[in-house]
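Troubleshooting log. The previous structure file for this entry was overwritten by mistake, so regenerating from the original sequence record. Sequence copied from the archived sheet and checked twice against the printout by T.R.
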Amino acid sequence: MSQQSIPQQENPQSHDQYREEMIGRANVADSPELLAYYKELGKYKAGALWTIANKIEPWQPKSASVPVLWRYRDLREHVIKSADLVTPEQAGRRVVYLNNSGEQGMSTAVGLLYSGLQTMRPGEAASAHAHSSSALRFIMEGRGAYTIVDGQKISLAANDFVLTPNGTWHEHGVESDGSQCIWQDGLDIPLVNVLEAGFYKVHPELGQAVTETVDSSIALWGAPALRPQNVGWDQPYSPLFRYQWEPTYEALQRYARVSDGSPFDDILMHYTNPITGGHVMPTLGASMQLLRPGFVGKAHRHTGSFIYQVAKGRGYSMIDGQRFDWQERDIFCVPSWAFHEHVNTSQTDDACLFCFNDLPVMQALQLYYEEALTDNDGHQPVRG
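Regenerated output below.
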């Protein structure tokens, strides 16, 4: 993970109150004359920068999101109930979305990331569609689920990580001999909407013809450190659409045998584009990390928004001084610039955390910064 040092800046927290209020910051008291002036500017769709400067250029990142833990045991029955209330055809996408925006309908789980839980019953299928947002799936439970991406049918199993990149035709379903399935959807919808660049379209035939061998991307691109001869790929996203759980977990275990790991994340590996070695999609990155038995991480913070799903085990995370106890299939988020640390409470079993994030955007725009907590031996005091 690339990293930049923190920009040098005057931090008001390290100065007296006078400097905090005065030096380098707007400090203009209202007067009748100024209020009249602001009103006049408003007539021309304009304004005085000093009235908003302290808000739009803070000393450091301040996320509008807060740390949240979504417990699977609380949401599961509601996700399943959605299948009793609406059909895939009626809903378009039958999803219970995670709302951390403070405003109903804003669809933000953290920062500019969207997350939701989708369910399908055996024999159900959603219509094929395409959109500007990049999307991913992480399979939570069930058997027989599949997705079709630009004519390639991809079978899905628990803890698999699956791509549906922006602009691709895609659809999801469950085979008739499968079981009810639930997966997490992750998208960059809020980012695309902020950029005012969103398009959505439905396939003219509502479904795609399967034109490639099932799971062909795994056959071509799934072997570590090997690349097929004379097979071209010119898209900005990974040609491997399904990252399977078993080889992922095996890779983490091999890494753990030869590494001391990170003091913050223990054994962490990024899902990558097998051609470039970079992120799987231009706007969404993903990783899986293994916390060895008894691991107690130290706290750090970084820019970027992160959504975690517990793939294995149980433990807790401290986020901005709040403790969140998690177990398998729970989801939690870490807002940008929030101190966080992870702990595996088991002394015998691994814990694994899947994560998707906006790291590709942060890094491409040179906005990624990271900082370790140095006080209290690297651990946060509990405040709630």
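Residues 1-57 form one domain. Archived copy saved in two places this time.
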